[in-house]
Amino acid sequence: MPEFRLYNTLTRSKEVFEPLSPPRVNMYVCGITAYDEAHLGHARAAVVFDVLYRFLRYLGYRVVYVRNYTDIDDKIINRALREGRSWQEIAEQYIREYQEEMAALGVLKPTHEPRATEHIPEMIALVERLLARGVAYVVDGEVYFAVEKFPGYGKLSGRRPEDMLAGARVEVSEKKRNPLDFALWKAAKPGEPFWDSPWGPGRPGWHLECSAMSLKYCGETLDIHGGGLDLIFPHHENEIAQSEAATGKPFVRYFVHNGLITVNGEKMAKSLGNYVSVKELLSRYHPETIRLFLLTKHYRSPLDYTEQAIKEAEKALYGLYGSLYFLQRIKSVREGELRKGGRRLAQALETFQQRFVAALADDLNTAVALGEVFNLLSEVNRFLPAAREATSAEAQLATEVLRVIKDLPGALLGVGGADPESFIQGERERKLARRGLSRREVEERLQAREEARKARDFARADALREELLRLGVEVRDTPWGPFWMVEA
RNA sequence: GGCGGCGUAGCCAAGUGGUAAGGCGACGGCCUGCAAAGCCGUGAAUCCGGGGUUCGAAUCCCCGCGCCGCCUCCA
């Protein structure tokens, strides 16, 4: 096994990953605030940490993976008010949708998915600890964290408190002693949901839940804490302050942050109207297309969504499954060893396994890992023609290649692991449905074309192929008969 | 004003000191009834520009130019 090197935002460098008490790894990733539908950015975070989770398990670690839900917050309350529903209903709806969509994307379920409102006592207890330590103060039923009492404040984001005050927009509140102080407990305004606390009715501040829940499920020190780059400040900075001030222990060993999504080069935002929802993407593309698109760029870099880019991902994925589809059809026609092409593929397979894992071990470089998959694929395609009359050893090699693709990119990236036959058939059906075509319409024409070809009536055969193309169906003739796919 | 990132072929994207992965596209050849797919080959005198360090730099340093993110809720 290669060493796993992971970029740590705390040190701004790649480090060899060593958990505190192997083989256990505690990983806590900030989930969503359940007030609206999930967008591509949420999917990216979920997929990136899903790959990290899968890879850690592949390396033999026992991973406790926690991803939380913020189910009480201003935005949830506002939406509830606007729609005349309860905040619980709003949160419940978007959590459920998120779970369904992530499942559709092949994102594995975390070990725990705690919700903020189910941990109010833990949060209150944490606030009390902070008060007891003298790093928090109470004003009018609210509790604030006193940033100047925590010497390390700013160590994650690389900001000095002095700098943050100059020229920056910080929330103004007369209640705070220092503008950088943040709320641990907010007093309830009339009509707002609240929980009783030693400081009066109110609700927890946003940052507090992650500290309280990670403490409960993972202990005082996390091996990995993740989230989007946009959470570095203030969210994760504040979590560090709260947690370390309370426990006196390092909160996190490795902070991992994924890059953000842009759309046609612009920040994705509702106000810009360029919001890409997961629901819509799932209606148009196979989940693996979306995963492939998300993983073609290194997780820390910004990723630009364009129609062209996701279509390219789809094309590449179809190419992958197309080759696997034929590989799967290879049958042994006689006993025998590998011939030249087989030996070459066997060698490529070995190289592939080693390089694929090495790529992921280098800070989860999925772009390189995928490049290796396509390198292997190119060898598969070279092998294919001669393997129509496969020897027993060649047929076995074909099975071996399929197994490796399923076990490495399939199991670790969630790309390429489906049964090729099912994938192809499934995509045909899906695309036909989108175009309002029936399978029968396609098959009748294919059949007629085959008959025309047998009769060497190529004019008619070509006319039928043209007709299919106009319907969006591309046909190509293979040794195994006509193979067809439907255009996007 | 502060902090950070990015600029690599037509497009996307790896590579962070040893002589440019991969995807999409383009062109030529093979294959094909013709196509398509695939395979083979072509394609960056060179990595935004300029200086510097080094035997050697896309990779390190400095100075510019351009783009972007964060500093307020945000994956």
Architecture overview:
This protein is an alpha/beta fold and 488 residues long. The chain folds into three domains: 5-272, Rossmann fold; 307-417, Isoleucyl-tRNA Synthetase, Domain 1; 437-486, no CATH class. Helices cover 49% and strands 17% of the residues. It has 16 helices and 17 strands. The strands form six sheets. The protein has a four-stranded parallel beta sheet, sandwiched between helices. A four-stranded antiparallel beta sheet has the order 5-6-7-8. A three-stranded mixed beta sheet has the order 12-11-13. β1 and β2 (13-16) form a beta hairpin. The mean pLDDT is 93. The protein binds one RNA strand of 75 nucleotides through β3, α1, α5, β9 and α7.
The CATH architecture of the largest domain would be 3-Layer(aba) Sandwich
The total of helices stands at 16
The name of the CATH topology of the largest domain is Rossmann fold
Domain count: the total is: 3
Task: Catalogue the unreliable spans.
Answer: none
Rounded to an integer, what's the Rg over CA atoms? 27 Å
Give the rounded overall mean pLDDT. Answer: 93
Q: What is the SS-derived class?
A: alpha/beta
- Per CATH, the superfamily of the largest domain is HUPs
Question: Quick one: biggest sheet?
Answer: 4 strands, parallel
Strand content: 15-25%
Kindly report how far apart the N and C termini lie.
40 Å
Helix content: 40-55%
Find the count of extended strands (DSSP E, 2+ residues): 17
